[in-house]
Every structure is written in C-alpha cells, then in structure tokens.
Design brief:
It is a single chain. An eleven-stranded antiparallel beta sheet has the order 1-2-3-4-5-6-7-8-9-10-11, with no helix packed on it. With 151 residues, the protein is mainly beta. The protein has one helix spanning 2-15, and strands at 35-40, 46-51, 58-66, 69-76, 79-86, 92-97, 103-110, 116-122, 125-133, 139-145, 148-149. The longest helix is centred in the first third of the chain and has 14 residues, at 2-15.
C-alpha cells in the first residue's frame, strides 16, 4: 500500500506542470501575441500582463494603470472583464464589467472610508437586492432600482 501511495504521489508530482506564457519579444507591443509583457503607450497607459492571439490585444490576466486608476484582473479582447478597479481617491470596485467597461453583474464597491455596497449592477447601476455596510460595520439590506435605494 505504501508503494502504491508513493507511485501515485510521484506521478502527480511530475504530471503537474505549470503552463506559462513566454516573455514577449521585441519592442513593439502592437505585434505581441500569446506572450507575457509590459509596455507604456502614448496615452500613458502602463500594462503588464498577457496577450492573446490578436497582435497587441490584452487578453488574460494583467494589470493596467492609466491616470492613477489601476485595474488588476482578467482582460478579454482588450477589455477588462473581471477583477479589481482601484480609483485614485481610494475607492475600489471588485466585480465584473460589460463591453462598455461599466459595472455589470455581482460586485462590491468599497469607499475610501471602509463602507461598502454589495449588489448586482446592470450597465453601471445597482439593481435588485443588495446591502450597504457603513464604515462602522452596520449593515442594512436594501433594494435598488436604477442605482437608487427604493426601500
């Protein structure tokens, strides 16, 4: 039995290889595909992360910083789709985004004072049941319609 366990353990150890993208080659990020790299573009955007099949398109995990706003998470076809968005004033949104970059789906918005809202966003507006927790930890369940509290 010990030998069987040892064989299974060794097989699992050698079979668990980690897939990592190669480092991007060259200086022109607009040509990079299926690699991991960093660039700063003409508008000042700094990006470190994965590139997919389309040249120069952010696709996969990455970090993007533009004018003090930082996004850490998953990109799909050059758009942020899921992760954390850090604002210069200290606010943070964690959740998913639609094609336009608006909050979409379940998420949590935390203000710099520590209070937060949890709910479902539809095109950047809270909808349906959610909760508001103030900076002292007091929680209140609420219902939202078009971004406004209705109860």
């Amino acid at each position: 039995m010990k030998k069987l366990f040892l064989y299974v353990f060794l097989v699992l150890m050698f079979c668990s290889t980690v897939y990592a993208l190669p480092k991007c080659a060259g200086d022109d990020y607009k040509q990079w595909t299926n690699c991991f790299g960093s660039y700063t573009n003409d508008s000042g955007r700094k990006y470190t992360g994965e590139f997919g099949d389309i040249p120069g398109i952010r696709h996969g995990q990455g970090i993007s910083i533009l004018k003090g706003t930082k996004f850490e998470g998953k990109f799909k076809n050059d758009k942020a789709v899921e992760g954390k968005l850090f604002y210069p004033n200290g606010d943070i949104f964690e959740g998913t985004f639609n094609e336009k970059g608006n909050f979409e789906g379940k998420g949590k918005y935390t203000s710099q004072d520590g209070g937060y809202v949890v709910g479902t966003w539809v095109n950047h507006k809270l909808q349906g049941k959610g909760s508001i927790t103030d900076s002292n930890g007091n929680k209140r369940n609420v219902t939202f319609k078009d971004g406004k509290i209705i109860n």
